[in-house]
Automatic annotation (TrEMBL), chain A:
GO molecular function per UniProt: endopeptidase activator activity; protein-macromolecule adaptor activity
Subunit structure: Component of the gamma-secretase complex.
Protein name from the UniProt record: Gamma-secretase subunit APH-1
Residues passing through the membrane, by range: 35-59, 71-90, 156-180, 187-205, 217-236
Signal peptide span: none
UniProtKB/TrEMBL annotation, chain B:
GO CC annotation terms, alphabetical: cytoplasmic vesicle membrane; endomembrane system; melanosome; plasma membrane; protein-containing complex; secretory vesicle; vacuole
Pfam families the record matches: Ncstrn_small, Nicastrin
Protein name in the entry: Nicastrin
Originating species: Chrysemys picta bellii
InterPro entries reported in the protein's UniProt record: Ncstrn_small, Nicastrin
Localization per record: Cytoplasmic vesicle membrane; Endomembrane system; Melanosome
Principal location: membrane
């Protein structure tokens, strides 16, 4: 659909991620490192899940549409579970790395807190996931044609971009909640994260009824956003303070001699 | 990950796994591309050809031309395209009946057209259709201001009155031919679903559109493009040539074998029999040429076979050379080259050896079995030529009429090139007295139907191959007449009633060259392991720029089979004849053919054929002499191109695209602002009551 649609859809899907990278990641080399490593971990999980799906298709493979659909559902579930497994593996790796960094740098405090790590790893997962789901579609959006000649909805590109946006943000929130749950050994929170990931992936099978998939995903995203906000230390009080610009008073009031 | 539509996650994954699993799957177009575009596979483009002074054909932009489809089924529909339609530029889908010069000139002048797709008309248009010139090969024949000026430029007879010259116009938009009626129906369905105005209102987006890719690299004329190509080859490490000369090979064979490595005795006389084997149409590589080429050379082949069966043929005083010229459609490429070679002593036979010339022009549409004999009035005034010509014409008494009119010029024929070099007695046999009988001269409709080849229903391919049509019988009569005349011309004194052409062989050849080359007879006479020579689609006879097109090779093998003899050589001896000592080896050409299939087994019984069939290069002397602007020799070249394809899809409105862009930019700006704000206040937002200001953010 030409360059306008290409640029529009890329900005829709990756605008917030780009803004987050520019404002919070770009200046800090350590955060950048962990972002890229997080992306790599997501890639490995994708490789493994595609291997599993490929083997499943070869074994069960027939040209039957319902068998194919079932295989796809199976593949999606396996992929979600593998992503969460790799998120856990990344968490473990980061803990070890942080301990190692601490012994090398001889400082008393961790160079990067677990909270920041959770945010950065979530963002890494999210960006990589978004890229892999949207890039193929973006390259075709550059051409002169739009989806629809076989009867599909012409809103294909827009909905894909919005869905990717939701997924990118969701990965950030999942990361924050997940790491916090691992730290505090709150296994029910872990299970809830995995469940919501499965739910969002499952809801995409409603496509091409985009209302059926986009609306639930955005609702889940809002819910996860509030949960992550509260997990990261936010509270309604802080929010009110910020919004009413009384943060300076708050800081002054809380200042202690170092 | 999650998938947006119930489809595999695309090529990216499969690629990663490819080298792991060796199964390539289907990575052609990815699934999103398959959702958007419908490729049109059975199309033929119109390409650019250039000669010394002009460029003809069509051109598209580098990245294809896109336009909203509009179906034009009657003249009034054109008004929407030219003036009324609100979404220019348009891509017109034209019915074959409307593909006329007037309409095309209207489209040519308009800027609201981005391309044209012509749906081939079945049955052929009743009023005839010829995109060739009214006066084919004008200026390259023998008639000029110095030689018979009253006959030059078709002043006396217009040979192709139905010719509208469309193939020789220059269009700046792409034109494609839709050969498959199913694809045309798909396009019309898309048009009816999306592009038809509802109740007089403007049709709404998304609209059905078509994109045609046919970007040609050469421009202006042959001089320019050859100059650019030679600069590229001389100075560039990776030369990008822009055009190629049209060239191929002529096929020739002699009745009595001659030594091709030396010249024949100056006292020896040769009679040349000639036909052309190529044709052309508006579209690239669409050239069925049934009446204009195939029927003639099939008759020629049948006459050659009939002559070779005569027992005392090796003792005839004069030799006969059966010549099949390639490229005659493009200003006599093959014959001008042969004449040039003869003049430059590069050919075993010299112009002085030629006793007379007999050419078979279009012979399939004879009116009440009459065959006309055309002669050149200017050379006949010469005292020595006149009696020979009269003798040639008289030989056809009883089977045909002789054209005693002193003043009718020769139709476009290879004989004219020989006359340009030397005045030789000769005749051209045709089925037309003045203008062509062929109403589809050099067009895509000059097919088997045009020469009235009719097969009964329900025959298998094998039965169709052997069925003798009336056309075959008629052409066999012509071949018989020609063979008998040649026998007498060559000095034969025996009874000619035994010389008969075989209608069954003629029918097989017509089937093979007009309907399907991949038949059992052709399979048995070609060399082993020649994949790609025989195909299942309709055979086309365009000279092209690649050497040895299928037609030339098939004519060569058929001629070898019909005029050669089977010899008892092994494969080694046959493929390397110079190894075995035999003084006659130099006169013959040996071919190892794969033979026919045993009915019980799947293997073939190959054998060695000894024949006198040779190939000589048919490339215009203009390219040898590097005279690219020559008016003496043919200078036709074909442009090069990278990508030729066509596809249809839906296009969205500009408003929707701009909205998407604006939404994207808005979201980006919004997120930048929000992130900046959150980042600035992060120490407040994310601090719990216990932390205070010492949280490291």
């Amino acid at each position: 659909m030409t360059a306008a649609v290409f640029i529009g859809c890329s900005f829709i899907a990756f605008g917030p991620a780009l803004a987050l990278c520019v404002c919070t990641i770009a200046a800090e080399p350590l955060r950048l490192l962990f972002l890229i490593a997080g992306g790599f971990f997501w890639l490995v999980s994708l490789l493994l899940s595609s291997l599993v799906w490929f083997i499943a298709v070869q074994i069960g493979g027939s040209n039957n549409a319902s068998v194919k659909k079932n295989l796809l559902i199976f593949g999606v579930m396996v992929s979600v579970l593998l992503q969460e497994v790799f998120r856990f593996a990344y968490y473990k790796l980061l803990k070890k790395a942080n301990k190692g960094l601490m012994t090398i740098s001889q400082e008393e405090t961790l160079p990067i807190s677990v909270r920041q790590l959770s945010y950065v790893s979530g963002l890494g997962f999210g960006i990589m996931s978004g890229v892999f789901s949207l890039v193929n579609i973006l390259t075709d959006s550059l051409g002169p044609g739009t989806v629809g000649i076989y009867g599909d909805s012409p809103q294909y590109f827009l909905s894909s971009a919005f869905m990717t946006l939701a997924i990118v943000l969701l990965h950030i929130f999942w990361g924050i909640v997940f790491f916090d749950a691992c730290e505090k050994k709150k296994w029910w929170a872990l299970a809830l994260v995995i469940l919501s990931h499965l739910l969002v992936s499952g809801v995409t099978f409603q496509n091409p009824q985009y209302e059926g998939s986009l609306v639930p995903s955005y609702i889940i995203m809002m819910l996860m956003a509030t949960w992550a906000f509260f997990t990261a230390g936010g509270s309604l009080r802080n929010l009110k303070l910020c919004l009413m610009c009384r943060d300076k008073d708050f800081l002054l009031a809380n200042q202690r001699p170092r | 990950g999650r998938h947006l539509k119930g489809e595999p996650s695309g090529c990216g994954l499969l690629f990663i796994l490819n080298f792991v699993s060796f199964s390539s799957g289907f990575c052609w177009a990815n699934s999103v591309e398959r959702k958007i575009y419908i490729p049109l596979n059975k199309t033929a483009p119109c390409v650019r050809l250039l000669n010394a002074t002009h460029q003809i054909g069509c051109q598209s932009s580098m990245s294809g031309d896109t336009g909203v489809i509009h179906v034009v089924e009657k003249e009034q529909d054109l008004k929407w395209v030219l003036t009324d339609g609100p979404h220019p530029p348009y891509m017109v889908l034209l019915e074959g009946e409307l593909f006329t010069r007037e309409l095309m000139l209207q489209l040519k002048g308009s800027s609201r057209i981005s391309g044209l797709a012509v749906a081939i008309s079945k049955p052929s248009p009743a009023q005839g259709f010829s995109p060739g010139l009214k006066c084919p090969n004008d200026g390259f024949g023998v008639y000029s201001n110095n030689y018979g000026p009253q006959y030059a430029h078709c002043n006396w007879t217009v040979w192709n009155p139905l010719g509208n010259g469309l193939a020789y116009e220059d269009f700046n938009f792409p034109i494609f031919l839709l050969e498959d009626a199913n694809e045309t129906q798909v396009i019309k369905q898309c048009y009816q679903d999306h592009n038809l105005p509802q109740n007089g209102s403007v049709p709404e987006y998304p609209l059905c559109a078509m994109q045609l890719f046919a970007h040609m690299h050469a421009v202006t004329n042959t001089v320019t493009c050859m100059r650019r190509s030679s600069l590229q080859t001389a100075f560039s490490l990776n030369p990008e040539e822009v055009c190629d000369a049209l060239s191929d090979y002529n096929v020739w064979s002699t009745l009595k074998p001659i030594n091709t490595s030396s010249k024949i005795d100056p006292m020896d006389e040769v009679i040349i029999v000639a036909t052309r084997i190529d044709s052309h149409s508006f579209f690239w590589n669409v050239a069925p040429g049934a009446e204009s080429a195939v029927a003639s050379f099939v008759t020629h082949l049948a006459a050659a076979e009939a002559l070779h069966k005569v027992p005392d043929v090796q003792k005839l005083p004069r030799n006969i050379m059966f010549t099949f010229f390639q490229g005659e459609t493009f200003d006599y490429i093959g014959s001008s080259r042969m004449v040039y070679d003869m003049q430059m002593d590069k050919f075993p036979i010299r112009l002085d050896n030629i006793h007379s010339f007999l050419e078979l022009s279009q012979v399939a549409l004879r009116n009440s079995s009459v065959l006309w004999v055309h002669t050149d009035p200017v050379s006949r005034r010469n005292e020595s030529i006149q009696p020979q010509v009269m003798k040639l014409s008289l030989l056809h008494r009883g089977q045909s009429e002789s054209l005693c009119l002193q003043s009718q010029p020769l139709p476009p024929s290879s004989f004219q090139r020989f006359l340009r070099a030397k005045q030789i007695p000769g005749v051209v046999l045709a089925d037309h007295r003045t203008s062509f009988q062929n109403r589809y001269y050099q067009s895509m409709y000059d097919t088997a139907e045009n020469i009235l080849m009719k097969y009964p229903e329900g025959l298998s391919p094998e039965e169709t191959l052997d069925y003798v049509t009336d056309t075959a019988k008629s052409l066999a009569e012509v071949a018989t007449v020609v063979a008998r005349a040649l026998y007498q011309l060559a000095g034969g004194t025996g009874n000619t009633s035994a010389i008969q052409a075989d209608p069954r062989m003629v029918s097989r050849m017509l089937y093979g060259f007009l309907i399907k080359t991949n038949n059992s007879w052709f399979q048995s006479i070609i060399k082993q392991d020649l994949k790609g020579l025989l195909g299942d689609e309709l055979p086309q006879h365009y000279i092209a720029v690649t050497t040895l097109v299928n037609t030339t090779q098939l004519v060569q093998y058929v001629l070898a089979n019909l005029t050669g003899t089977v010899v008892n050589f092994t494969k080694e001896e046959c493929l390397n004849p110079e190894k075995t000592p035999n003084p006659e080896k130099e006169m013959y050409v040996y071919t190892w053919v794969q033979g026919s299939r045993d009915p019980n087994s799947t293997s073939r019984v190959p054998f060695c054929v000894q024949s006198t069939v040779h190939l000589t290069k048919a490339a215009s002397p203009a390219f040898e002499l590097k005279q690219w602007g020559s008016t003496e020799y043919s200078t036709w070249t074909e442009s090069r191109w990278k990508d030729i394809r066509a596809r249809i899809f839906l296009v969205a409105s500009k408003e929707l695209e701009i909205i998407t862009l604006v939404v994207g930019i808005a979201i980006l700006i919004l997120s930048l602002l929000a992130t900046y704000f959150i980042n600035a206040k992060a120490h407040v937002l994310f601090s719990s009551p216990g932390d205070g200001g010492a949280v490291a953010y």
